[in-house]
Structure formats: structure tokens, C-alpha cells
TrEMBL record:
<dbReference type="GO" id="GO:0003677">
    <property type="term" value="F:DNA binding"/>
</dbReference>
<dbReference type="InterPro" id="IPR009061">
    <property type="entry name" value="DNA-bd_dom_put_sf"/>
</dbReference>
<protein>
    <submittedName>
        <fullName>DNA binding domain-containing protein, excisionase family</fullName>
    </submittedName>
</protein>
<dbReference type="Pfam" id="PF12728">
    <property type="entry name" value="HTH_17"/>
</dbReference>
<dbReference type="InterPro" id="IPR010093">
    <property type="entry name" value="SinI_DNA-bd"/>
</dbReference>
<feature type="domain" description="Helix-turn-helix">
    <location>
        <begin position="82"/>
        <end position="131"/>
    </location>
</feature>
<dbReference type="InterPro" id="IPR041657">
    <property type="entry name" value="HTH_17"/>
</dbReference>
Length: 175
């Protein structure tokens, strides 16, 4: 568990680990991992060695690289139920916006008592749906621009076509 990592400030119950204040040891570890592509061994204080499984080694590399960039790391089991504030924080939106998404049926939730709970896997599924919707919209826009010959157009032509596309998307036809 990350709570036992010396020098790392953690909130073990929440599975959150902040980058250490002194980045020296972290940078040494990052350099070591950069030089070694194969999984390493874990060495205990008594000299006992245990090979790290490939999946654990890859996760360690990702954690170190993220912390090196000053990012906070959160380990969340897929089956964990989050509060609405935790779910909103994960999605990077406000709590009222999350509640609206829940009430509109965009994200499933449970309400065993007064408080709503959101399954972490449902948040991941929502993120993936949104990602797919954005990709599809960009694909449609690219196709429309290509059909309209905008890749060879002047900036003024592009601006006029963009304005027309926005009017079509909003359902208006006024110039």
C-alpha cells in the first residue's frame, strides 16, 4: 500500500498519494526505471527478494512518472462507491452538475439513505461514452469540412462555413 512509502504524503483510506516534498529520491527512482524496461525485484529489509509481476512493474512506472510531473495519484478499486463530491472531483465538474447528470439518468447511482452513491465503473463508462460522442462529433465536422472543400479554403471561407454549421446545429437558418 502506498501509505507505507517513506517520504510520500498519503491519505491511505482514500487511496491518494501526493508527490513527496523532496523529489530527489523520486527522480533517482525515475532514472532507474527509465534504464530498465524489464520488471525488477522487490528487496525487503531482511534481504528477501520477490519478483514484481509485469502489471505491478508497469503500474509503478506510471505512478513514478506521474508523481515526477507533480501529479497526485489515486488508486480506486473499480467496485468502489463514491460520494457525489468524489465523483464530481473525478470528472472535474461541480457537484451540482454531477447531481444534474445523475437525475437526468446519464450516470446510474444508488441512494441507500439520504446520500447518493456512484459506482466508479459507472463513472468510467460515462467518461468513455462522452469521449466517443466527442470523437463522433469531430469526425462529422471533419467530414463536413472536407465535403465543403474547406481544407483548401481561405480563412474567411472557413469562418463563414463554421458560422453556417453552428446555425444548422442550433436549428436556426437566419443569416
Amino acid at each position: 500500500m502506498l501509505a507505507g512509502v517513506k517520504g510520500a504524503t498519503t491519505t491511505a483510506q482514500a487511496g491518494v498519494a501526493f508527490p513527496p516534498h523532496d523529489l530527489g529520491a523520486l527522480l533517482d527512482l525515475a532514472r532507474f526505471l527509465d534504464l530498465h524496461a524489464e520488471p525488477a525485484l522487490l528487496l525487503g529489509p531482511d534481504g528477501e527478494q520477490v519478483p514484481l509481476p509485469e502489471e505491478v512493474y508497469r503500474l509503478l512506472v506510471e505512478v513514478v512518472n506521474s508523481m515526477r510531473q507533480g501529479k497526485i495519484i489515486t488508486l480506486v478499486p473499480h467496485t468502489r462507491r463514491l460520494t457525489t463530491q468524489e465523483a464530481a472531483d473525478f470528472l472535474g465538474i461541480s457537484r451540482p452538475t454531477l447531481v444534474r447528470l445523475l437525475e437526468e439518468g446519464h450516470i446510474p447511482f444508488d441512494q441507500p439513505g439520504r446520500h447518493r452513491r456512484v459506482l466508479f465503473t459507472d463513472l468510467l463508462a460515462y467518461q468513455e461514452r462522452r469521449r466517443a460522442e466527442r470523437r463522433a462529433a469531430l469526425d462529422r465536422m471533419t467530414e463536413d469540412a472536407s465535403e465543403a472543400g474547406l481544407y483548401d479554403a481561405r480563412p474567411e471561407d472557413y469562418a463563414a462555413a463554421l458560422k453556417a454549421a453552428r446555425r444548422r446545429s442550433a436549428g436556426t437558418t437566419a443569416p
